[in-house]
Automatic annotation (TrEMBL):
One of its GO terms (biological process) is pectin catabolic process. The keyword Zinc applies. One of its GO terms (molecular function) is zinc ion binding. This is 4-deoxy-L-threo-5-hexosulose-uronate ketol-isomerase. It comes from Aureimonas phyllosphaerae. The gene is kduI.
Amino acid sequence: MTIDHETRFAVHPDAAAAMGTEDLRRHFLIQDLFQPGRIRLTYTHYDRMIVGGAVPGADPLPLETIRPNGTARFLERRELVVVHVGGGAAEIRAGEESHALQPRDMLYVGMGQEVTFRSADAGDPARLYLLSAPAHRTLPTRHLPHAAAKRMDLGARATANERSIFQYTTTIETCQIVVGMTQLAEGSVWNTMPAHIHDRRMEAYLYFDLPLEARVFHMMGAPHETRYIVMANEEAVVSPPWSIHSGCGTSAYAFVWAMAGDNVDYTDMDPAPLKDMR
Ligand SMILES: O=C[C@H](O)[C@@H](O)CC(=O)C(=O)O
Ligand SMILES: [Zn+2]
């Protein structure tokens, strides 16, 4: 087996408010996603979103089913999103098709497909970020080159939050997953502040392209009861539906954000005004 997996259960906001640093990290932080020659998955009980990483080396990595899915094939009742976050090009086989992914490209794979990951050059393996949620119908598998994403520039240098949001699922239809990435401009360090929540959708962040020594202080918690988790490059964090999700880095960075839940409306957010935050 080339797949490792672990389970994360859903946490009540009152329980999270009572947690110290180690408990917060154990429940919400996901480390070591990218291990050479392996697929590493975290099965969460937040909308049953699976968050993971694949790093194919000399041998192709098939996405075989895991026990928590309870199905004979991994995507039997699920959809998959793959985002290339580093290393050389990847070749991803989905059913009869093969897709070449460059860094920051996204591949959507519809329910029912068999998937195998390969690196174009085993000497420069691709690091592939994986997201999978339950699906209710098969939608076409689609490759979205990064340049084809819908771009939104927002924030300002004066508030250290100048950034570009790239939406990946505006032209690509999905059942549940809403995904994209955000790039901070040089000198800007804050994402998603003022913050928001969206009870109908969970969210996961993967911070990447962060210098080795740098850290992101990732804010979480109910707006009136915030906490933070100190995160390094290529670590992910789960945001429960009741939690804000925002971060401040010691330098600029990028992150992949992804949601699953009751709707696929990116704009459906409830603001968490700063004056109410504690
Ligand atoms: O629900 C949407 C998400 O939290 C992110 O898209 C926010 C984000 O990337 C940003 O403001 O920088
Ligand atoms: Zn959000």
